[in-house]
Each structure stands twice: as C-alpha cells, then as structure tokens.
Amino acid sequence: MTIADFLDPKGWLTREAGPRYVQLHKRLSEAVAQGILRPGAPLPPEREIATITDLSRVTVRKAISLLADEGLIVQKQGSGSFISNRTPRIEQSLSRLTSFTEDMARRGKVSTSRWLERGLFMPSPDEVLMLALAAESSVARLARLRSADGQPLAIERASLPTDILPNPLLVETSLYEALEARGLRPVRALQKISAINLGDEDAALLEVNPGVAGLRIERTSYLENGRVAEFTRSIYRGDAYNFVAELRLSKE
Ligand code: 16G
Asked: Domain 90-244, what fold?
C-alpha cells in the first residue's frame, strides 16, 4: 500500500475521534509501525499530506511537529522530514535482579556476546575495594559486547572474586547461569546509573556516532550472606534503553 492510499481520509478521519491533528499524528505513527513509511524514508511534504487528507497545512504541521517531538521523524533543514532510524527502546525494570540473557529472552530476542576480555588478572585498586579482595588474590574478568537480535546494546565489564568464579572460561553465554550452577547467584544488587557521551571506542563497538548519549551503569551484587559477588561496569546505548523504577508511597 502506498502512503497516499494509507492517508486517504475516508479510512480514518472522523468527527468524533478528537482533534484532527491528533488523528493525523496517529495515522502517520501507524504508517511507521506498519512499515508503510520505513526508517530513513522521507515523509511526504506538508503540502502533499494536506492535499491527500484535505486538511489545512496548519493541522498537518502540528501533527508533524508532534512526531518530531517524539523522535519518530527527524527534520532536516532544507530537505524535509525523514523517518528516524532509532530502534524501539527496551525497558528494563530496576526492581528485578535479572541477567541480560533473561531480559532479552523475555522479549523474544536472542542475545549474543562478543568477548572483549575473559580471564584471571591482577586486580585494579577499584576491584580490590569493590570486591573486598585479599592481598595477592587475582580477579576474574569478563568483558563483553552484548547484542540482541544482532544489534549491539551494551558493553559490560564484570569483575568477580576467584572463589566465586574460579574459571571465567567456563562462562559461555550467561554469567548468572554459570553462578547459579555453582549455587552462587546474587540475590541483591545496588546499581548506579549516570549519563555519559560515548567515547570513540565505545561508540564504534555500539555502532553509533561518537559523542552520542549513553548510560554508564555500575552494578554491585551480593550473595544471600552479604558477600559481594560481582562488580560490573557497563555502557548502554542511550537510544535503546529505558530503565524503569516502580515507586511506592512509604507507609512509615
Ligand atoms: C546484566 C547486568 C550485569 C550482569 C549481567 C549478567 C545490568 C546493568 N547489568 O546485564 O551486571 O553481569 O546481566 O548477564 O543490568 P548474563 O547472565 O546474561 O551473562
């Protein structure tokens, strides 16, 4: 179906369904959702949409600016509007202690990892502190580029005490699965999230432009007995993730 057919007002514009620019905005969003307007494709010019729909240009402009506010289209000076290439964001709950593999599986996505580093190393001062390591002990490190359905989403650098993970080479797909098999899966975690602009190297791995927004996340997770099991520093693509926290009114 062409966009002109899809926008034929006989199929969707009604008196009862609220303001006309809202109806047009909804129709154009549906065109993107249904793939009639594909990412990167130009949006028909304002006057053309006005002709097809028999709406005023003011109405069309309002609908288009709403799409731009939502990031569904990108307006380029002089050359019109284009459907944005952004990917739908993944929502991750901040109240459940889940693994990347589990998070993606729940969304029907296949997770893959590219190893950036995996082995036993001399710990950095940060690792000694965060993992409460004894003097002279080494640390297990797993650094991975994590993707969902082939799309890179995050760079994760996990450090663990060696009595919790003596052989990092045994982790093939899921770290938490490997820990669970040893009866050492973390049950509680603290997470610190901050905004960053991606550096050249991280941006290249995540296949985005250098300098775009990202999220830095530090997770410290604990075993039932209170011992630190994992200290992970991650860089997430800012355009692909929403972290969602549920808040409740305290009864105290
Ligand atoms: C999540 C955790 C990370 C953990 C990983 C294990 C965040 C920010 N990070 O990505 O700390 O190491 O899951 O995933 O949520 P895996 O079991 O699939 O290897």
From this structure: Chorismate lyase (3.40.1410)
